[in-house]
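Researcher: Let's do a round of design. I'm pasting the structure tokens now; please hold your answer until I've finished.
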């Protein structure tokens, strides 16, 4: 099979010092690949090497079956555009001026834009919602606006591949989602190939066809999101010792509070997560139950509670589990009930609440 981008035993780094060794990538056209890994693991170094801003220290990279070193700059600029974190010098330039520089591979020696060039610039700015600020000074807009302007610049270059280094870092959640949705749209409409680095693991999990995991020495793992986000792998890759990252749900939680729990939380169906996190913030140890193992509350409870009393999914709560819950509640002074009503499979939790009332526990409703 012919791959659009292919590397063979490529080593990348600075000067004579390698950062990542023996990189073997096989990327099909029209795929979104995301680089993840801790700070300093080589994400930016690899992107700059693919962009020809750094010379590989060994090995070979092919772009559309051509050795990258043999592709001339102007030819490469028609195939590849980059959005990196370095700030560009833009004195007295409007946002539209910045976007228009993306047309330089198609202009003549005087850099004059044709009617078609102006049309492409306008369309790119509208696509990323910066057309309304086209006349504003580029140096006087926010970091988030600046990032979207740079994406418009890359898009109007009409590339076949786009490289992005932490493109969502300065965007709020609205524009993070819009930004990645635009990339997906270009991927499907124009068969655009995207290689980018992301810190937001939940977004990487959702947008990527493939994920490259870097550890500062080599490519630790390559795979589809469901192959990467498996139990304990992200914890291993990022060397997490404080708190946890739940790979299945893409959710990070702070470290649980240790100590003897005097609070029992009755939850389930997603209603308990707010209570769990508030108790953690107040540094109050707690017990929670009875939680089914497939309940959306379970991952957060497992991360933050001193103890979680669980039941097997799709089965009635066993008597011994209920007895354990009552014994654990006996040791607590306070009960927090996050449920307003109880469904068929939650009757044991309803009975727990009644038991709490009978035994005189302080009961709070959340």
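Researcher: That's everything. Go ahead.
Model: Designed sequence:
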């Amino acid at each position: 099979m012919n791959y659009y981008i292919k590397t063979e035993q490529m080593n990348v780094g600075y000067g004579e010092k390698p950062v990542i060794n023996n990189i073997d990538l096989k990327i099909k056209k029209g795929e979104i690949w995301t680089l993840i890994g801790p700070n300093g693991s080589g994400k930016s170094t690899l992107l700059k090497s693919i962009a020809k801003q750094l010379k590989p220290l060994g090995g070979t990279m092919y772009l559309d079956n051509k050795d990258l070193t043999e592709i001339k700059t102007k030819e490469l600029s028609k195939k590849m555009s980059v959005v990196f974190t370095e700030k560009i010098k833009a004195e007295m330039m409007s946002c539209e001026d910045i976007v228009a520089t993306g047309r330089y591979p198609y202009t003549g020696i005087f850099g004059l834009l044709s009617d078609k060039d102006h049309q492409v610039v306008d369309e790119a700015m509208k696509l990323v919602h910066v057309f309304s600020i086209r006349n504003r000074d580029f140096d006087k807009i926010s970091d988030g606006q600046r990032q979207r302007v740079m994406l418009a610049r890359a898009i109007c270059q009409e590339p076949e591949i786009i490289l992005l280094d932490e493109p969502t870092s300065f965007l709020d959640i609205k524009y993070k989602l819009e930004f990645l949705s635009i990339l997906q749209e270009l991927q499907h409409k124009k068969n655009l190939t995207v290689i980018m680095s992301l810190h937001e693991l939940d977004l990487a999990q959702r947008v990527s066809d493939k994920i490259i995991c870097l550890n500062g020495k080599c490519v630790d793992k390559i795979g589809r999101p469901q192959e990467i986000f498996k139990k304990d792998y992200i914890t291993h890759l990022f060397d997490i010792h404080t708190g946890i990252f739940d790979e299945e749900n893409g959710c990070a939680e702070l470290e649980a509070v240790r100590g003897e729990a005097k609070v029992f939380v009755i939850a389930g169906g997603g209603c308990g997560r707010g209570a769990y996190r508030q108790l953690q913030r107040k540094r109050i140890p707690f017990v929670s139950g009875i939680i089914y193992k497939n309940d959306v509350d379970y991952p957060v409870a497992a991360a933050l509670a001193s103890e979680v009393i669980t039941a097997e999914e799709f089965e009635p709560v066993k008597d011994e589990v209920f007895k354990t819950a009552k014994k654990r509640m006996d040791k607590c002074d306070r009960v927090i009930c996050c449920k307003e009503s109880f469904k068929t499979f939650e009757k044991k939790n309803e009975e727990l609440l009644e038991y709490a009332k009978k035994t005189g526990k302080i009961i709070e409703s959340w």
